[in-house]
């Protein structure tokens, strides 16, 4: 059942309520919609409460599929929201494992959208539209407008995997992670195969990660973004266009324009030879055809990020980067400097609030 406890925060004691989602009878809720339907100030009766929602894979299989979307506006008593996956249930960089919010027949819209003015972090989840996404100019993750208008740290996606699936979606100008006009920070995420063909022709475009000027996008991998009926300037991998924010240490491949940014950039990799990024004409990944986006030996992204530069935490597998050495660009740090596995596992198993 849901648990309540108090932890010591920076400003003093912090109330915490934790809820679990999974198929085991011991979980608080079986589906996302079961929780979001009751997520209000009655469920969270005390002001200034931090809420943790933890997904579990109770199926005994490699992945647990959650069919309903996590779409909600958090109640006013919730000051922080952490949506995470249990240590024994997350994907750890495998695109076919963990807990996945997935489109199914009759479920064709965004998999996650969280409104409200509180700080939120979403980590360790997979999102898959499975070729069914049908909305216009929206995203598998698409934020509402009822969030901070200036602070990208109020929306933080970390160690998530987002895909349109293995078939073409009927949407027009589909997005992967879409901030929808509000700031956001995205780190250590994989966005791949966002492919759609809705509408005969359209000047609207698809992108992998973007949607607002005020975005920090760091240590991500984006591959294969394609709205096939696009008639404008082309589809984009990463889009963020305000000086003072950061788009760095990313890899973008197989899209019309890899980066459309004026934000501060460094150590980005592309395959279109534009801008000031490091360009690669050869395959960077072990085998993207089977969704293996780990770097292959000889990839230009390997060891590209200099030691002690802008740090962006453990990679999409939970592997710690060793900042005394050069590390890899992109969300997989499997060739450059990395810490020993035992330390990485210890860090990842800290209390979830220590990762906030």
Question: In words, what does this structure look like?
Answer:
With 356 residues, the protein is mainly beta. The protein has one domain. 4% of the residues lie in helices and 36% in strands. It is built from two helices and 28 strands. The protein has helices at residues 32-36, 341-348; strands at 3-9, 12-21, 49-55, 63-66, 70-73, 78-85, 98-102, 112-115, 119-123, 126-128, 139-142, 155-158, 161-163, 175-178, 184-187, 190-196, 207-210, 215-218, 221-227, 236-240, 246-248, 251-253, 257-261, 264-266, 269-270, 278-279, 285-287, 292-295. It has a ten-stranded mixed β-sheet with strand order 1-2-3-6-9-12-15-18-21-24, with no helix packed on it. Strands 4-7-10-13-16-19-22 form a seven-stranded parallel β-sheet, with no helix packed on it. The chain starts with a strand and ends in an 8-residue tail after the last helix. The mean pLDDT is 88.
Strand order of the largest sheet: 1-2-3-6-9-12-15-18-21-24
Distance linking N and C termini: 23 Å
Stretches where pLDDT is under 50 for at least 5 consecutive residues are none
- Element string (H = helix, E = strand): EEHEEEEEEEEEEEEEEEEEEEEEEEEEEH
**Domain module tally:** 1
Rg of Cα set:
19 Å
* Rounded mean pLDDT score: 88
Question: What fraction, in percent, of the residue positions are helical?
Answer: under 10%
């Amino acid at each position: 059942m849901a648990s309540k406890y108090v932890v010591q925060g920076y400003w003093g004691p912090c109330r915490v309520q934790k809820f679990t989602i999974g198929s085991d009878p011991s979980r608080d809720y079986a589906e996302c919609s079961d929780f979001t339907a009751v997520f209000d100030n009655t469920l969270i009766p005390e002001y200034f409460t931090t809420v943790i929602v933890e997904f579990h894979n109770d199926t005994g299989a490699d992945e647990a599929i959650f069919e309903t979307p996590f779409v909600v506006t958090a109640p006013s008593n919730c000051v922080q929201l952490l949506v995470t996956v249990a240590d024994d249930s997350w994907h750890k960089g495998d695109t076919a494992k963990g807990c996945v919010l997935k489109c199914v027949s009759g479920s064709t819209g965004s998999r996650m959208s969280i409104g409200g003015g509180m700080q939120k972090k979403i980590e360790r989840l997979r999102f898959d539209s499975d070729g069914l996404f049908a909305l216009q100019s929206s995203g598998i993750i698409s934020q509402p407008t009822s969030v901070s208008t200036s602070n990208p740290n109020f929306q933080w996606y970390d160690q998530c995997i987002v895909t349109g699936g293995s078939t073409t979606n009927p949407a027009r100008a589909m997005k992967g992670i879409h901030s929808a006009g509000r700031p956001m920070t995205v780190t250590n995420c994989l966005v791949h195969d966002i492919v759609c063909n809705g509408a005969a022709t359209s000047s609207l475009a698809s992108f992998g990660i973007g949607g607002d000027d005020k975005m920090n996008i760091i240590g991500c991998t984006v591959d294969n973004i394609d709205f096939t009926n696009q008639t404008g300037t082309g589809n984009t991998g990463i889009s963020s266009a305000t000086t003072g924010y950061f788009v760095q240490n990313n890899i973008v491949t197989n899209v019309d324009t890899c980066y459309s940014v004026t934000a501060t950039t460094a150590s980005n990799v592309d395959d279109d030879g534009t801008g000031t990024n490091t360009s690669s004409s050869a395959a960077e990944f072990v085998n993207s055809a089977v969704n293996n986006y780990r770097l292959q030996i000889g990839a230009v992204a390997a060891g590209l990020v200099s030691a002690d530069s802008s740090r962006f935490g453990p990679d999409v597998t939970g592997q710690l980067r060793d900042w005394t050495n050069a590390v890899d660009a992109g969300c997989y740090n499997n060739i450059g400097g990395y810490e020993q596995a035992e330390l990485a596992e210890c860090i990842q198993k800290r209390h979830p609030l220590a990762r906030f």
